[in-house]
Write a structure and sequence with these properties.
The structure is a single chain. The protein has 436 residues and is α/β, with parallel strands linked by helices. It folds into 3 domains: 5-126 and 268-342, Rossmann fold, CATH 3.40.50; 141-255, 3-Layer(aba) Sandwich (Rossmann fold), CATH 3.40.50; 345-434, ANL, C-terminal domain (GMP Synthetase, Chain A, domain 3). The protein has helices at residues 5-20, 29-47, 51-56, 79-82, 118-124, 153-164, 181-191, 200-212, 235-245, 355-362, 395-410, and strands at residues 97-102, 113-117, 141-144, 168-170, 195-198, 225-228, 249-255, 259-263, 271-272, 278-283, 297-303, 314-324, 334-341, 346-348, 351-353, 368-377, 380-387, 415-418, 432-434. The protein has a 6-stranded mixed sheet with strand order 4-3-5-6-7-8, sandwiched between helices. A 5-stranded antiparallel sheet has the order 9-13-12-11-10, covered by helices on one side. It has a 4-stranded mixed sheet with strand order 18-17-16-19, covered by helices on one side. β6 (225-228), α9 and β7 form a beta-alpha-beta unit. The protein binds zinc ion. Zinc ion (ZN) binds at residues 265, 267, 272, 327, 329, 331.
């Protein structure tokens, strides 16, 4: 009902591939590569008159690529190029735009604007399904505790669950005017909701409010799936979330600009890439060269089903590794592992580490609560922790335990501070503080 000429082209292209094999989870490399080539050429054609992208394509002979290797001739678009410039990469007439979201600005600087047409929102993006990756029932109640204000997080996942999967969605939000954590916990309990979609830190916050409301997070709730998104976390942190809520959790990786970028299947060992939606590359952040398979680098994404404001070779600032593996779930395609953000990496002793690497060890100390800070100073790492619920360990014992586990696991000898309570934030949890 919202069709425009441009979306007919995107929709028709996707449909023609779904006719070959309507289960995208089962596409093989040949089909995927051919689709990517066709979809990229369509996006390049939609973007060819945009001044910004025209400049990025100057090394191309025309506005088409003949193979995926040629795509590397197109220059990257960075976050800084788009900050504070609302219409820079909009590729349709303004009259076709229907929604505007902005980036949260957690990486600093001015906002990045994201415009969508009605077709982006309600046709092309939700046309394709990933049955293995989003196995919702139409009767499932999904508590969507992601931010709805300004950001695309809440509303875009709402579209996936509600319009795409026909599940029942409670737009709970994350600490907005009407959406206090108390209210969210109360409704999760009253509705006996099956699914919670939120960030790792907010899953921890909701747990605290459940305890404060004298509810048993396991016995009094009916969760059978938690999706964690918005901020990364280590596997041990995830296991702690599962333990406190008594439900399995699945990582969901997306960006405010480019939407869904990775989802875990039931085997939960890496992200499957929604290949119909996005073309993903890994590059060396210093040189811009494409990384070999299995090599860590910056994730670069190209949106394949957006006409309003496509992102083409967009540098996400997130680090990851792509490998082709045949997963136990049956998906034979590329899998992504995340390594945190470029700007959050811990620089210690002249080396760079993912904060999740340290978190993984820290969270093994059960007496440590779910909120902490890694403070990187010129003289090393300080870990600020609080005690977990129900523990009566002394400060000195806790410090000793944390130092031992971190030292044995990572080789780093940290300073450890125990505080009563780390301040809670409803925005993305800031775990890493660079002080030196
Ligand atoms: Zn799988």
């Amino acid at each position: 009902m919202f069709n425009s000429k441009e979306t007919d082209r995107i929709k028709n292209l996707v449909e023609s591939y779904l006719e070959k094999n309507d289960n995208i989870d089962q596409w093989d490399k040949i089909l995927r590569d051919q689709y990517h080539l066709d979809a990229i050429n369509l996006i390049l054609d939609l973007a060819k008159d945009n001044e910004h992208y025209k400049g990025k394509m100057h090394k191309l002979d025309g506005t088409k690529i003949n193979n995926l290797d040629e795509f590397k001739k197109i220059e990257f678009t960075t976050k800084d190029e788009l900050r504070g410039k609302p219409y820079k990469t909009v590729c349709v007439d303004k009259s076709k735009l229907a929604q505007l979201n902005i980036s949260t600005g957690t990486t600093g600087g001015d906002n990045i604007f994201c415009f969508y047409t009605m077709n982006d929102l309600y046709c092309s993006e939700i046309q394709t399904k990933y049955p293995e990756l989003i196995p919702l029932k139409e009767t499932d109640i999904v508590v969507n505790a992601l931010p709805y204000e300004m950001s695309s997080a809440g509303i875009s996942l709402q579209r996936v669950f509600q319009v795409g999967e026909r599940a029942i969605v409670l737009p709970a939000g994350k600490g907005g005017v009407y959406s206090t954590p108390q209210k969210t916990v109360e409704l999760m309990h009253k509705l006996q909701a099956e699914v919670l979609m939120t960030s790792p830190s907010y899953a921890a916050t909701l747990y605290e409010y459940a305890l404060e409301s004298d509810l048993d997070p396991i016995k009094d709730f009916n969760l059978n799936r938690i999706w964690l998104t918005g901020e990364g976390c280590s596997d041990t942190y995830r296991k702690r979330i599962e333990k406190i809520w008594g439900a399995p959790s699945y990582f969901y990786y997306g960006s405010l600009e480019c939407g869904s970028l990775g989802m875990e299947c039931r085997y939960r060992n890496g992200y499957h890439i929604p290949e119909a939606h996005v073309y993903m590359e890994i590059i060396n952040p210093e040189t811009g060269e494409t990384c070999d398979e299995g090599e860590i680098g910056e994730i670069v994404t190209t949106t394949l089903v957006r006409e309003g404001q496509p992102f083409i070779r967009y540098r996400t600032g997130d680090l990851g590794i792509i490998k082709t593996v045949e997963c136990e779930c049956g998906i034979k395609e590329r899998k992504l592992a995340l390594r945190g953000r470029v700007c959050d990496q811990l620089k210690l002793d002249g080396r760079i580490f993912s904060p999740f690497y340290y978190e993984d060890y820290l969270m093994k100390v059960e007496e440590v609560g779910l909120w902490y800070h890694f403070i990187v100073k010129s003289d090393g790492l300080t870990i600020r922790v609080e005690k977990n619920y129900g523990t009566d360990i002394s400060d000195d014992e806790l410090i000793e335990k944390v130092v031992k586990v971190i030292k044995e696991g990572t080789g780093t000898i940290p300073m450890v501070e125990v505080v009563d309570k780390i301040p809670r934030v409803f925005t993305k949890a800031v775990r890493v503080i660079q002080e030196g």
